[in-house]
Design brief:
homodimer; alpha/beta; Rossmann fold; Dna Ligase, domain 1; 7-stranded mixed beta sheet; 7-stranded antiparallel beta sheet; 21 helices; 30 strands; about 35% helix; Succinyl-CoA_synth-like (chains A, B); CoA-binding protein (chains A, B); acetate-CoA ligase (ADP-forming) activity (chains A, B)
């Protein structure tokens, strides 16, 4: 049978909340990969049925052992498969025949083993689909549902204490994922789910994460990724997390290695895969952690129960220097360290020591050891300031004062509903755990606490998942067959984009000098001439562009020059004629483009024009479609974005008009699946708004 | 008496290696600030004499207590002063009278207490100087010489175990410094010296650090800074550390807050103090740690005994993903992850599991638990590769296998002399300490291990302290009084710089249209005209520049225009005339400048020209004087440096010629202490080399 969406969902839910688990190939040696799930299930107190399968045994660890899959009783919800690779397909087929809806395949020897392994994995995937068995893995460590003591895993992580908690963690890597899970345990944050997806022959990252985030006991989702095929799934996951109000934190490796796309045009060559991934997850409100430490730091902030209503950071320290360091970092990561209101300053002055500075950061010095109320009242005054949305209290050592300090922080926590973190450097071991029990996030380094506060603020500042513009088709211009692959003639591409609302410089095709002169007269001003050929994407490279021609002789000579250049530099090219275009105004150049990403579909790019795009790679991406505010955010991301506001006496330009161009383009691109590539380079921008003066549009069958 | 340099050095050495320590204002309550040094000295086994001074006691903790300073015996090398602020000056005077050469002043209530405190501190400094007593502090935690159990401190750090070790740590912050010292202890790295300099009324950071790095037991120097007055001292310290082959790691807070200089010209406005500090310490081979965690990570790498002969990083992991993450980070921090030589690959293939990738990173998978030789031989093969200069081995958990793994790493350490680090995520507590005892640096996170390896490689790649060019004066041009403050007329500034070897576009001053026309004829090509006035620094802002004039009428009219513009936009300005300058060639623009930094003296700056310098702040700084290689390194730092190599069909320019300009300028600037500011903006650069086409030079008395 093929699984429908809802039966798939049901099967996943049965798998992660099983009332009966079979272990295929179970070993009586509980230290082995195929014995460890039994050990964990028994040790951790799983209350469902545990059903080992192995013809060699009658019983393992007091559990009745079944000789084969066919002998299993009814009602098995998931089977762990720990048999040699060569026997996996038969096992999965038998599980299907026995009505077991899901298999967690530990066995390695598949896609990770070269071409032969990949072929075997494809056969396994097909067999599982035919058999109606959902696959987790192969080559995975399995999963843990800590709420119900389900340990369908041989991960080292399960060897230690594993209390359940509000974090769901899904990982494509077994070893790295186990390390991250162990770090979650070290911090005492509490892992509700741990799932290693392995080779993802069946269930992929996003589907499993979508399943576990629905659990009301889960408050935060965390994922470790190495690759991603299902961009739509990731977007769906991100939106669902937003709807549920549960933050999603992702770490993805391969930030630098991802190369340029093979068939990219010269702007598209910048569209490295990681930049696209990064842009998309930001667009949909996902937090990205650059490594496992930052992931843990973010999880700690997001797992504490309080929301953050803005970007104002209050800092109280025992060290002026630590305060400066944290304020520096706050500025770098987008937080403000606001000046305190006069009323707050008066409150602070009441109990601050004479030499303490009463600003923000507040330096409470070490005196609070003698006068605990100093710390307590300072921090509460800081948090009561309307400009402060989250606070960090920095201290160090204080080995002899843990009880006093924990009591102070408990009282602070009770007297405010804003989040505050404690950064306790070289803390006595008991302190962090006791603070975490109070719902207070604890860090060991000031900059890390600031970064985590910024993540919390960014998450709560994110827009709800709802508002998304729809794709918007534009009528295809006459004379163009939109089903034909290849470069679209400029006149028609221009017309099509104009119909989609994109401001395009008008363009006319002239077959000869006379026609070009007539077109120039029609423009009533200086014109540019450009060679037009379906075989020439980059006109300047063949000497195919002439600018600022403004008399009949020059236009006529220009046409001759362009034709001669094309004949010399692109001898085989089919020449359609010469484009005549009035010179556009605007003192700034941008590059705007659309690329069809294999994972995420149509991606719109904007970048600084001229040499900047090449040397600085100063570009911003978003997945289509998106709204005008998203377009504005793209412009904010450009390092050269300040040019839009006018420098060196140049006038500012209308950012919103540029953002509208980007949004309109994104809606049209999303409705035009055959659009493979589009370069608007340059888009000239002046006080009158943007206008695209060159356009290369390529169509391609998205299925091809 | 005033201390001479050598008697100062002697006094510092007596202070940090005292045979007798007095504690002025000693308390019988050993938990108080003024009792704690006695407790620590007794507890830690200080073998010199301990001499408490307090009229209230005859004896404290079994030590004879002196009623006053005058009663102290001969031979006291240092006194800890822990009396109220109002009594400190009298104590210091009495110490001088009694022949005690140094005082460590714990007392607060000085410079940190506003204007009155600052005045008191100045009086204290003056009194100490008169009395011939070196001051450490006031408002400091004191110091520790752990080798000789000298605990002249009340720092919390001294409450715990404090084994001596190869790191000397000097800190301006007490609280933050204590935290860092505690982190050093947590890692078991070993702190030989801990010194908190406090308000630095006498001994400053650099002088104390210079004293302790001479100790042969010290291998690494670490400093925490909040501010710095003595730039020359820091440079001297950096050079001495290089001579001794001892790395110096500095953390300085205030990266963002430092504002623009008050009297900066428009390029100088970029010369924020932290950028200058950062450039100078890099120039002299100091490593900068951005925060306390990075400092510890670097110290761990630098304290292990092995040098790193290059930037090639070998990575062996138990997780492919961790390998990718580390390779990403390596690329970002300037390490390479080289492909392995064929011989290495063959060696790896012998013992690698069939599915392990044999590249770099080497994925040894988890199989080494069963086959320890897999890990051992893989890592040794990796380290034996000539392209690999340092290696990192990544693993996680392995709680049950600590003995096996420590034995493997010990054998690897014995069989190679290249440095290798272990990154052990969520390590069992015993493991890191055991590896550190083997001389192996250990990290808990992959990216941090990579950053530390990069620091080690950077340190060993640094040039020796020796080679430094000398300052080189150039003859002052006729008609200029170099002692006069203010803006130097362009013709003379140009001549002066030409004499210093700087390629300057020729310039002539014309008083009227006729003279300008004559000068244009003399040029034999198109010219630029520029208004010349000692009151106008930024000529374009008053409409004072016209370009590309190439006929007599245009030149004559141009002079009239400039004079009219100046009269309108700068009505009070004294007009010297109009400069006539042939149009310079060169397709690129740089900005070159000199600023006199109050801490570091003449700083040379180069930046991308045009709008880039304003929007991107794309500039590099170095302290003058420096050599041509340093100039090349400055160009390498520019983000837009790629423009120098030619983009979009532009020719490459001669980087060395630009670097020579920078070096020559630096040598001249270093020899010209009255040079307050110099802007060469723009310097045009073409295939023929650089030429400065505009010059604003300001002289000022450096003592004023």
């Amino acid at each position: 049978m093929n699984l429908t969406d809802s039966s798939r969902t049901d099967a996943i839910q049965r798998m992660i909340h099983p009332r009966a688990i079979a272990v295929i190939g179970a070993s009586a040696d509980l230290s082995k990969v195929n014995g460890r799930p039994l050990k964990h299930l028994l040790d951790k107190g799983y209350t469902g049925r545990i059903l080992p399968v192995n013809p060699k045994y009658r019983e393992i660890a007091g559990l009745a052992c079944y000789p084969d899959i066919a002998s299993l009783p009814d009602g098995v919800d998931v089977a762990v498969v720990a048999v040699p690779a060569s026997e996996v397909i038969a096992s999965v087929e038998a599980l299907g025949a026995r009505g077991v809806p899901a298999a967690v395949v530990f066995s390695s020897g598949f896609g990770e083993m070269g071409a032969a392994g990949r072929a075997l994995e494809q056969r396994l995937a097909a067999a599982a689909q035919r058999a109606g068995v959902l696959l987790c893995g192969p080559n995975c460590l399995g999963f843990i549902n800590a709420f119900e003591n389900v340990y369908a895993t041989f991960s080292q992580y399960a060897d230690g204490e594993t209390g359940a908690g509000p974090i769901a963690f899904v990982t494509q890597s077994g070893a790295f994922g186990t390390a991250i899970a162990a770090l979650v345990r070290q911090r005492g944050l509490g892992l509700g789910y741990f799932i290693n997806t392995g080779n993802e022959a069946g269930l992929a990252f996003t589907e499993l994460m979508l399943a576990v985030i629905e659990d009301p006991r889960i408050r935060v989702a965390a994922g470790y990724l190495e690759g991603l095929a299902d961009g739509d799934g990731l977007v769906r996951l991100a939106r669902r997390c937003r709807e549920l109000g549960k933050p999603l934190v992702l770490t993805k490796v391969g930030r630098m290695a991802a190369g340029a796309r093979a068939a990219a045009s010269h702007t598209g060559a910048l569209a490295v895969q990681d930049a696209v991934f990064d842009a998309v997850i930001r667009q949909y409100g996902v937090l990205r952690a650059r490594n496992e430490e930052q992931m843990l730091d973010m999880l700690e902030a997001l797992a504490q129960p309080r929301a953050c209503a803005g970007f104002g950071l209050g800092i109280a320290t025992q060290s002026g220097g630590a305060g400066v360091m944290m304020a520096d970092r706050a500025e770098e990561v987008g937080l403000t360290v606001p000046a305190l209101e006069a009323a707050t300053q008066r409150r602070l002055a009441e109990f601050m020591p004479a030499f303490g500075a009463a600003g923000n950061p507040v330096d409470v010095t070490g005196q609070f050891v003698a006068r605990p109320e100093l710390l307590r009242e300072s921090v509460i005054a800081l948090l009561d300031d309307p400009q402060v949305h989250v606070a960090i209290v920095w201290l160090q050592l204080m080995t002899a004062h843990v009880d006093t300090l924990v009591a102070i922080f408990a009282e602070i926590q009770a007297r405010t509903d804003k989040p505050f973190f404690v950064c306790w450097v070289a803390a006595p071991p008991a302190a962090p755990q006791r603070l975490r029990e109070l719902g207070i996030a604890v860090y060991g380094a000031g900059e890390r606490a600031v970064e985590a506060a910024a993540a919390l603020a960014r998450y709560h500042a994110g827009r709800p998942a709802a508002a998304q513009p729809t794709a918007a088709a534009a009528p295809c211009p006459p004379g163009l067959d939109p089903r034909r692959d290849g470069m679209v003639p400029s006149v028609q591409a221009t017309a099509w984009l104009q119909a989609a609302g994109i401001p395009m410089a008008p363009v006319a095709l002239a077959r000869d000098g006379d026609a070009a002169v007539a077109a120039w007269r029609g423009c009533g001003r200086a014109v540019a001439l450009k060679i037009e050929s379906p075989d020439i994407a980059h006109k300047t490279e063949v000497g195919g562009v002439l600018l600022k021609l403004d008399d009949a002789a020059a236009v006529r000579a220009g046409v001759a020059t362009l034709l001669a250049n094309a004949a010399r530099h692109a001898p085989g090219a089919r020449i359609a004629g010469v484009l005549v275009q009035p010179m556009a105004e605007g003192h700034l150049e941008l590059v705007v483009g659309v690329q069809r990403d294999p994972v995420f579909g149509a991606m719109v790019m904007v970048g600084s024009g001229g040499v900047l795009v090449e040397v600085l790679k100063d570009v911003a991406f978003r997945r289509a479609p998106f709204d005008v505010d998203t377009g504005l955010a793209m412009l904010d991301e450009l390092r050269m974005g300040a040019l839009l506001d006018g420098v060196r006496g140049q006038p500012a330009v209308d950012r919103r008009a540029v953002a509208r161009l980007l949004s309109d383009l994104s809606r049209w691109a999303a409705a035009t699946p055959r659009l493979a590539e589009l370069d608007l380079n340059p888009v000239r921008v002046g006080p009158a708004g943007p206008v695209a003066v060159d356009c290369v549009m390529v169509l391609r069958d998205p299925q091809a």
